[in-house]
C-alpha cells in the first residue's frame, strides 16, 4: 500500500468505524436512497436474475452496497475490498447478520492488490474518491477498477465533489443536519472539522467526468445529488 493509501485508510480507525453507520446517514441526506438506486441501476443494466461478480471497492463500514444489491439479485457474488481492517470487519459483521457471508469475499487492501484480470461484471466505488488526496491517487484507483472490469461493465461512482469552502451554504446546511439531530454548536464545529480533515473532493462534476474518461470509462451520467454528494453511473469502454 502506498503512503497516500495508508493515510486515507488510517482515517478510518476503530473509533471512526464504530460511529460510521450513524454519522454517514446524517452527513449524507439520502444515504439509503443512493445505495438503493445504485443497486437498481446495476440490476437494470446487467439484467435481472443473472449471475454476476460485483467488485465493491471501499466496502468497509455499513456494507450498504452489498446489502441493497443482494436483496434484488440472489445470484450476485460480491468481492468486498477495503484498506481499513476495522471498517472491513464492521462491513463483514453486517454481511454476516444479513446471511450473506457465503456470497461475499472480504479482501483487506486496495483494488490494485487484486489480480489484474477483467473478471468483474460491475463495480462500485461509493464514498471513497474524496478521501484520496490529489488527482494521481484518484486516477490510480479508477484505472485499477477499469483494469478489472469486463468491457462494457457498469461502474457506480458516488462521493463528494466541490471544495468544501467553495460552498459555504452547503457547509452551513450540513451543520443544520446535525443540529436537527440534537448536536450542540461545539459538536457541530467538531463534526464539520472532521469532515474537512484530509478530504480532497474532485472540484466539479466536470472533473469527475475527466477522471473517469481518462481511466477508460465512458462519460458518466449523474443519477443522485445531495449537497456536496453526487452519484454517477458509467461503463468500461470496450
UniProtKB/TrEMBL annotation:
InterPro entries: Methyltransf_12, SAM-dependent_MTases_sf. GO terms for biological process: methylation. GO terms for molecular function: methyltransferase activity. Residues 57-154 form the Methyltransferase type domain. Its EC number is 2.1.-.-. It is an enzyme of class 2 (transferase). Keywords: Methyltransferase, Transferase. It comes from Labrys neptuniae. This is Class I SAM-dependent methyltransferase. It comes from the Bacteria. The keyword Methyltransferase applies.
Amino acid at each position: 500500500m502506498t503512503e497516500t493509501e495508508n493515510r486515507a485508510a488510517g482515517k478510518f480507525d476503530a473509533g471512526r468505524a464504530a460511529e460510521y453507520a450513524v454519522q454517514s446517514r446524517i452527513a449524507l441526506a439520502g444515504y439509503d436512497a443512493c445505495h438503493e438506486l445504485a443497486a437498481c441501476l446495476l440490476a437494470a443494466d446487467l439484467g435481472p436474475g443473472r449471475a454476476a461478480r460485483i467488485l465493491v471497492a471501499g466496502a468497509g463500514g455499513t456494507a450498504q452496497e452489498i446489502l441493497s444489491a443482494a436483496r434484488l439479485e440472489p445470484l450476485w457474488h460480491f468481492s468486498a475490498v477495503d484498506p481499513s481492517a476495522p471498517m472491513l470487519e464492521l462491513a463483514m459483521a453486517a454481511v454476516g447478520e444479513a446471511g450473506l457471508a457465503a456470497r461475499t469475499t472480504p479482501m483487506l487492501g486496495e483494488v490494485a492488490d487484486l489480480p489484474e484480470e477483467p473478471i468483474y461484471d460491475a463495480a462500485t466505488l461509493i464514498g471513497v474518491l474524496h478521501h484520496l488526496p490529489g488527482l494521481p491517487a484518484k486516477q490510480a484507483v479508477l484505472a485499477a477498477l477499469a483494469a478489472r472490469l469486463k468491457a462494457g461493465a457498469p461502474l457506480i461512482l458516488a462521493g463528494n465533489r466541490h471544495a468544501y469552502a467553495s460552498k459555504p451554504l452547503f457547509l452551513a446546511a450540513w451543520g443544520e443536519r446535525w443540529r436537527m439531530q440534537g448536536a450542540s454548536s461545539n459538536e457541530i464545529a467538531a463534526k464539520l472539522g472532521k469532515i474537512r480533515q484530509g478530504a480532497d473532493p474532485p472540484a466539479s462534476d466536470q472533473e469527475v467526468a475527466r477522471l473517469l474518461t481518462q481511466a477508460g470509462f465512458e462519460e458518466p451520467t449523474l443519477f443522485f445529488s445531495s449537497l456536496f454528494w453526487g452519484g454517477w453511473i458509467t461503463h468500461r469502454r470496450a
